[in-house]
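Board notes (copied after class):
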Amino acid sequence: SKTAFEYDLDVLVEVHDEEELERALKLSEQCLLGVNNRNLKTFEVDLNTSLRLKKLLDPSRLLVTESGIATPADIAMMQDHDIHAFLVGESFMKQPRPDQAFTALFGVPEQL
């Protein structure tokens, strides 16, 4: 991460559980934290992973929730728990019109 900061790049550190979160928190506070809701061994997705790990963080710490965000209800649930950053990929890529899927998911006017 030190080299990335020297080049003024942001660093996103991905975690999956409490143990990885503990290690990530020992890195620079400048690092962004991402919680992957997908278990990479079973490929099962559980959005509660982000909610569980968010409780262990300082409330001011930005957390990016990754994987499994597919509906406006998923977005609302995360926002209700003060999670406002999302990494969404698969649900867009499965759509014939990812731009329309984005608009439907986030409720953003299509002019953007």
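Comment from the instructor: The mean pLDDT is 92. The CA atoms of residues 92 and 98 lie 5 Å apart.
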